[in-house]
Please model this.
Amino acid sequence: MDNATRSERSRKAALEAAIRIIARDGPGRLTLDAIARESGLSKGGVMHQFRTKEAVLKALLERQMEHFEEFSTRYLAKVSATSANPNLATQLATVREAATSPNSAALALVAAMVENPDLMSLPRDREMKRVEAIKAEAADPELALLRWAAARGLLLSSLLGMSPLGKDEHQRLFARLLDDDQWRPLEKPAKVRAVKAGTTSAAKAGTARKRA
Amino acid sequence: MDNATRSERSRKAALEAAIRIIARDGPGRLTLDAIARESGLSKGGVMHQFRTKEAVLKALLERQMEHFEEFSTRYLAKVSATSANPNLATQLATVREAATSPNSAALALVAAMVENPDLMSLPRDREMKRVEAIKAEAADPELALLRWAAARGLLLSSLLGMSPLGKDEHQRLFARLLDDDQWRPLEKPAKVRAVKAGTTSAAKAGTARKRA
DNA sequence: TTTTACAAACCAACCGGTCGGTTTTATAAG
DNA sequence: CTTATAAAACCGACCGGTTGGTTTGTAAAA
Model:
């Protein structure tokens, strides 16, 4: 087998084993020996691919970030034409994806934070840019930020195993978060720029539509 | 010195040392030896007060929960007369308190989760009751839950060191979360079927709002 | 041949927890 | 108020096992 692909295979096996361990036994049980055992590699093999445990965590983190970055980019391209606030919509959808992901993905975050809190600067910096984009496009930046925060609250709660919500409730809340019509900005700025009228526009709530 | 108070003192010293360690070095660095070193006690002394490390985490967890429970009760008593949704208001205020606490309190959660994820059932169960109370009193339960989720998102993000928000922004967002006037309930969401194309809903402004 | 990928034995430091012993407090008889 | 005794708080050396990481060896790829 080709050398490069062999390495690639081993790295992938190790990282996936790591995720499995974290999800099954908790971040505290993630050790190099456990990774070796779970991946089928020897410890030496693992150490050949990652010089240190921190390197494993870093790779794990980057892998996950890349994965969701990709999801984000694709989603953004899809909705940027139809949504008034595509960046917010994208982040909400991405967080939902992370929360419902079959593999318990974002646990890499917790594991990294346990081992070395400084590692969190990577995802934090990346998140900062996204938050900027969300604020920039929003008619009501605070409201947008709060929707973003709510999504993160749902994700992190269930990630830490402390969400008191049922799975169905979880889903419904995400759906509502994503529904722009439910989040009309308050008339705080005197001059509210009408939301970019796209194909989505539809009926403005409250005034145009009265419910029964 | 009295025996009981001596024990009390030692337990307190150990637990506070533990919190200091977690906040400074991360949850992964919390060891029994470290607690002994940081608290000034000997390892034997620590082990005399807590038979196992898990007992330390449990005590830490219960201590923090009790502290915020107390804050909650006091706050609830204060606002239950004037607020339309005192339970939600109380939870929001409590979470804000936890987020701005000088000691990085709620880190006990992360530490417990690392050592033994099962420990999370304690705070989860308690949270479940609170969520029930919030839903019961709310005109729009989903909206209330989302405000609650947003608060938790802000708290957990900064707790894990991955909040991209400035401290002032943080405060402003909490203030807005707490301001009932900014969150007008929708009426019974009889037929809400919203995904991405804005086809939905009826936003109705406060007919039934009771405000002071 | 040289380099790369991996295996397996190995190591020092550290981990949670035990144990025998010392000091401090509590109880109570004289 | 002593004094004897037991009980609780505390110390620190120690133990088996684990941890992150190294070293040595080997077989395949380059």
